[in-house]
Amino acid sequence: MATEQERNKAVILQMFEETWNRGNLDYINLVVAEDFRDNSPTHSFTTPLLGRQALYYAVKGFREGFSDFHFQMIQIVAEGARVTYLGRATGTHDGTFFDIPPTGKKVSLIGMNEFHLVGGKIVERWSFFDMLGMMQQLGIGAGPGGH
Amino acid sequence: MAESYNKQVYRRFVEEVINKGNISIIPELYHPDYVDHSAPPGAPHGGTVFEQVAAVPKMFRGAFPDVHFTIEQMVEEGDWVATRVTGRAQHLGRPFMGMNPTGRKVTWGSMGFFRMKDGKIIEHYGQPDLLGLRTQLAAKPEPGSLDENRAVVTRYVYEVNMQNFDAFDEFVDPNFVDHDPIPNQKPGIPGLKDAYRMFTTAFPDVWFTFEDLIAEGDMVIGRGVIEGTHTGNFMGMVPPTGKKLHWTGTRMFRVKNGKVTEGWINLDFLGLLQQMGVIPQT
Amino acid sequence: MTATINSEINSSNSKGGNQVSTAEERKAAIHRMYDETNKGNIEILNEMLADNFVSYGGAGFQDLHGPQAFIDLYRTFVAAFPDLKFNVQQVVVGDDMAAVRGIQTGTHLGNFLGMVPATGKHVEWTGTAIFRYNAEGKIVERWQDLDNLSLFQQLGVIPAFGSAGG
User: Nearest CA of chain A to the CA of B181: how many Å?
Assistant: First the structure.
């Protein structure tokens, strides 16, 4: 019999595979609660922060910018209702990424997420993605003091 | 609810090492085979585990003397502890991410993954919101705003600390009035430079660290601690003692159009002379 | 005297207690604090200082805990300088803090700190006090830097070879 944390881990692993890695955005409806709240600290994103659409637009934005986007799990750590995910994201910038036109460059970046699940559904997320590293690898505004 | 041993180790790192600068306990918390996959910007390459880890509070506390991290969440499973924290600080010290201090207050989040072995941290991945932090640090203040005034005074103090007196024209009004001059201090910028030389001659490494910065209208006041090693003659009267000294001080300025126009100072001059052995302790 | 003090405390309470929320209110309270202590009404400090008030040493003094310890120290200064006054030059208020810079004056008619017998001299020295306020608008922390060197030189305790500044 799987524990709560084992079930939650499975949900998260599946979510990354289906949505981030395969672009199956409908999957979000299965695993994300309607009143989902996102806490992405990265100010450059213009995605909404409330509701399933928050995660939908976040994944869509990345996959539109990087058609071969892939999150490789390094470590997953779960305790009760919380699951944390450490992964390395890779991809080729072959599409418009939010408002950045394609550069053709390849990126390799660390991303960390914390998820809070209730009843097997994701109700909240905190996301820490190496956006500064992304901009440096894409060759954009990378200097000190630049935006 | 009792916290697990591993979570307590991380808590001690945040509360003691980072928030209080107590680097001496690092060997209690970090394993000799520690590997950091995410050294922070500006961290040294190589060196002992102690040096590697001590570089983190040194960097943060150097730039942000009042830095305080709050642990928001810790998730533990097996050998791993994943953590989420919020950092709060005021950029009053040294440059950070290539940016000079401006007195700006910043808040940013960070996550980390720590693997534990034998009760100590042996592996680390970290992902702070550096973009968010840098955006806040780099934001240009509105002309005439309190942010600008704080930035002018923070810059003034930083350039004095760096003994870059030639830059004074950029942020000191030529008609600067010093309300607490040293005896026979010349007017304006030349007099001000002479006054600072009095200290830099005696204490070549003299450094003012802010503890508080208050701004209102066109006034800004900073309270802090000054440290210096007494390796030169002080005021032509007190030969070097070689001692590391520290004394308190408050520095107040009026700021207009991005330049300081008037200054006031109060220093624990008596305490300084007592430490040099010139005056007996009261 | 007691009746006057009580009516002053009552009038401040009738305004809704001691909540100081705006910068202007805080500045007004600071001016009132110095006006009152300059008149000899030291008890006003009980109104202004929180129960867990701390005045950090600096300038060679020990940390003081609680309003009474601070009032006691103030009284020792008044005993040495019965006409002790603080003339406020600048007040800067921001966030939960305030800074006051001014000139302290007095005539040295009593033994100072048990060390310096009365000289009869009129002395003045500059000083800056920094306050941190709690949510109720009371002062909970205080720091100070004062021109202690000049003070001791004027009292003749230290030869006048140079004065504080720079």
Answer: 37
The CA-atom distances, in angstroms, between C97 and each of B135, C27, C35, C37 are 27, 11, 20, 20
Give the containing element (helix H, strand E) for A12. Answer: helix A4-15
Provide the angle, in degrees to the nearest 10, between the axes of the packed helices B130-138 and A131-138: 80
Q: How many Å is the Cα radius of gyration of chain C?
A: 16
B250–chain C Cβ distance below 8 A for any pair:
yes
Whether residue A146 is contained in a domain is answered as: no
Domain, as residue range, for A23: 4-138
Instruction: State the nearest Cα–Cα gap between B264 and chain A, in angstroms.
Output: 32
Tokens encoding A54:
């928050």
Go through chain C and tell me how many residues it has. 166
- Kindly report the length of chain A: 147
Q: What's the complex ipTM?
A: 0.93
C-beta atoms of B131 and A135 within 8 A = yes
Q: Residue B38: give the domain boundaries.
A: 5-138
User: Nearest Cα to C104, choosing from C78, C79, C133, C130?
Assistant: C78
Separation of first and last alpha carbons in chain A: 50
CB C120, CB C109: distance < 8 Å: yes
Q: Is C166 touching B (CB cutoff 8 A)?
A: yes
Position A144 in a domain:
no
The residue in chain B having the minimum alpha-carbon distance to the alpha carbon of residue A115 is B75
Environment class of B132 (CB within 10 Å of its CB; exposed 0-12, middle 13-18, buried 19+)? buried
| Cα–Cα dist C42/C36, whole Å | 7
Instruction: Say how many domains are in chain A.
Output: 1
Based on the number of CB atoms within 10 Å of its own CB, is A4 exposed (0-12), middle (13-18) or buried (19 or more)? middle
Please list the pLDDT of chain B residue by residue as tens digits (282 residues): 589 999 999 999 999 999 999 999 999 999 999 999 997 666 667 788 999 999 999 999 999 999 999 999 999 999 999 999 999 999 999 999 999 999 999 999 999 999 999 999 999 999 999 989 999 999 999 999 999 999 999 999 999 999 999 999 999 999 999 999 988 899 999 999 999 999 999 999 999 999 999 999 999 999 999 999 999 999 888 999 999 999 999 999 999 999 999 999 999 988 899 899 988 776
| CA R_g for chain A | 15
Looking at the structure, do residues B125 and B82 belong to the same domain, yes or no? yes
Q: A78: which chain B residues are within 8 Å (Cβ-Cβ)?
A: 75, 77
Residue B19 domain-assigned?
Answer: yes
Instruction: Determine contact: B31 vs chain A, CB below 8 A.
Output: no
Of B100, B174, B138, B143, nearest to B258 (Cα)?
Answer: B143
Cβ within 8 Å, pair C60-B250: no
